[in-house]
Specification:
17 strands; mainly beta; two-stranded antiparallel sheet; 2 helices
């Protein structure tokens, strides 16, 4: 905070994996004189998705769900207006969406609104919706979907060239005492150029958790917040299950990438105190069509000429441990 009406955030990723260097995460200034009409200018998160807007330090699983890597746009340069109370809130903004083939800047328009008609210390009901319209003449969408662990073995997704795209997100979350849950459904639809086909992809996650030591998951102004243990010596112990799925089976998606997948995550979190957290996750991913590694990502095995020794797979397991100090 700077004086009482202004705030700023500067955040760098010191080593961005695979790039050989760092990257800018947040770089913005916020004017917040009016709580229900704060203006943010610079690089920041677009107002979309409960899981994306919840800090990576506070999400229940080690990684965000697989749909997050394909549907949520994350941080971009832009201008947004937002406001929130204990029971409702909104965010709307215009963001840089790159340049077209002639070098002209294209824009994205993104908004989110939520209601939390029940919002008490140990009881919550959250309902939210987000939308984004993105102008992108002659654009190509080449991304990947993680399988629950954001490290290697990512499933490639390539969409036919399009003029624009629309993203929809629906949110449901709540808690009752020791128990909490979240669910989101997201859909991306592209409007193809003359040489391609419209594409539609969708995905979801459903998550349920239980604090066996008696805590209740904190929530504030539309996002989940930091867990604070009731007993600093014992800490807070949480167990959870998360089910995710993606439907990428559409003619507008490259033949090598058309597939459907389901990912199950089981996990335990130990919040030793307000700073230290230790997490362990087991992940099981399963796909309708066999996959094979090609070009550093996974594609359908029937889309490439298999060579001796190439391993195909339709399922896989993963295990991850994370220790963090966040203050």
């Amino acid at each position: 905070d700077v004086y009482k009406d202004w705030a700023y955030k500067i955040q760098f990723n010191v080593v961005d994996s695979g790039s050989g260097g760092g990257s800018v995460e947040d770089l913005y200034i916020k004017w917040k004189r009016y709580g229900l009409a704060s203006v943010t200018m610079g690089k920041h998160k677009e107002p979309f998705s409960l899981e994306e807007l919840t800090s990576s330090k506070y999400v229940t699983s080690i990684e965000r769900s697989p749909i997050n890597s394909f549907f949520a746009e994350g941080r971009n340069l832009g201008l947004s207006l937002s406001g929130a109370t204990d029971f409702w809130g909104y965010g709307i903004g215009v963001f840089d969406n790159g340049n077209d083939e002639n070098g002209a800047q294209e824009l994205a328009y993104t908004g989110r609104a939520f209601l939390s008609p029940i919002n008490r210390e140990r009881a919550l009901l959250h309902l939210g919706v987000g939308m984004s319209h993105r102008n992108a003449p002659n654009a190509n969408l080449d991304r990947s979907v993680t399988q629950g662990i954001n490290k290697g073995d990512e499933v490639a997704v390539s969409v036919d060239p399009f003029d624009s795209q629309d993203i929809l997100g629906l949110e449901l979350a709540g808690k009752i005492g020791l128990f909490h849950g979240s669910a989101e459904y997201q859909q991306r639809a592209t409007s193809a150029t003359d040489n391609g086909e419209d594409a539609s992809a969708s995905g979801y996650y459903v998550e349920a958790g239980w604090f066996i030591t008696g805590e209740s998951r904190p929530y504030e102004e539309g996002t989940w917040e930091k867990v604070k243990p009731n007993r600093p010596g014992l800490g807070a112990w949480e167990v959870f299950i998360k089910q995710s799925g993606v439907d990428l089976d559409d003619n507008g998606i490259a033949a090598a990438n058309r597939n459907k997948g389901d990912i199950t995550t089981l996990g335990v979190n130990w919040y030793a105190n307000e700073i230290i957290r230790v997490s362990a996750n087991y992940v099981y991913a399963q796909w309708d069509q066999d996959l094979v590694a090609s070009g550093g990502k996974l594609v359908r095995a029937d889309s490439v000429a298999l060579e001796p020794g190439m391993e195909t797979m339709d399922s896989g397991h993963g295990f991850a441990v994370r220790v963090q100090a966040a203050f």
